[in-house]
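Histidine kinase/HSP90-like ATPase domain-containing protein
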Amino acid sequence: MTTLTHSTQARQYSLRRTYLALTSVARTARDTTRIHLASWDLHTDLVDNAVRVISEMVTNAIAATPRKKIMIDLFMADGRLHLEVWDCSPTPPSRRDTQAVVDARFDPNSPDPGGWGLEIIEALADTCGHRQGPDGGKTVFAQFSLQRTAN
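Tokens:
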């Protein structure tokens, strides 16, 4: 993931939601994202990939800041779909050791078989990264070109 500075952009469509970081919020964020992106007349494949990415980003934010405020921001600008998730943790996202993730997946006694979130985000998004906020929190973002899915 790269760290980028966010620039002010003219937004064609946008949605911002704030949630309490509970596990049930991941589903709510997925549903909200799907409904809104579909209403923006985006290609089905783009919507599906964006929903997967927002789910991973929200799940990571919940893990980083349980029971704290998180915020999702979806918008289109400059020919791109932007997905952003803010949380109050200053700790940048990091990958888990690949072998530990694989071992946990095949160990029925493992309490946490997750760990592929960043890889999923990087595989699906055209650009992704994070930036530190002035408040000490961070924003994890992903961007999708609107041109690659044009009908």
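Confidence is low (pLDDT under 50) at residues 1-8.
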